[in-house]
Amino acid sequence: KAGVTQTPRYLIKTRGQQVTLSCSPISGHRSVSWYQQTPGQGLQFLFEYFSETQRNKGNFPGRFSGRQFSNSRSEMNVSTLELGDSALYLCASSFSGGIVETQYFGPGTRLLVL
Amino acid sequence: AQSVSQHNHHVILSEAASLELGCNYSYGGTVNLFWYVQYPGQHLQLLLKYFSGDPLVKGIKGFEAEFIKSKFSFNLRKPSVQWSDTAEYFCAVMRGGSQGNLIFGKGTKLSVKP
What we know:
The structure holds two protein chains of two kinds. By secondary structure, chain A is an all-beta fold. In chain A, about 0% of the residues lie in helices and about 55% in strands. Chain A contains no helices and eleven strands. Chain A has strands spanning about 5, 10-15, 20-25, 30-40, 40-50, 55, 65-70, 75-80, 85-95, 105, 110-114. In chain A, the strands form two sheets. In chain A, strands 2, 4, 5, 6, 9, 10 and 11 form a seven-stranded mixed sheet that branches. In chain A, a hairpin with a 5-residue loop joins strand 7 (about 65-70) and strand 8 (about 75-80). Chain B is mainly beta. Chain B is about 0% helix and about 50% strand. Chain B is built from no helices and twelve strands. The chains are: A mainly beta, B mainly beta. At the A-B interface, strand 4, strand 5, strand 9 and strand 10 of A face strand 5, strand 6, strand 10 and strand 11 of B.
């Protein structure tokens, strides 16, 4: 069974641009969560989608948005990029996101903002 | 706000030494607890998890963790480490009603000397 896949794996953007990252969950999983990992802040929760609806959201500004499609694939968008947005963005999936479930993580997309 | 504390930022051990990594969380309600590992150049992988029942949880690769509710702790242990255990270890908590939202500790980097 294929794992969580994320594209692209690496990305370089400049300040002010926008970026879209993609995540394909494990087949059958309907919950997708996004995390940002930086050396300074560690791993921080961005948001979670289930059945095309945002169900939970972390403390990130509105420049960070996401969506989920009917096939459970999810995209994350960051508008007006700032230098501080440079990070590894991780996607995780689970069957329904319930508290007794385990999330499985993808390899991440490494974003560098210049 | 809920938080997860990992006491040691960097632990250096020789092969065959015993390992204990500390993890404390600040939420008083029902929680599920996880330890993830990130080997160099690889993505996050689940080591073990606690949902309910026996507070001593056994995971992969000889790791185990003990949930002590009165101490809000979930420490990771291994009797004898190997060079291949060199990695970063993350404790994470998911609390009730927060689907998809894992709160991570800052991580502990483990270096095992051959």
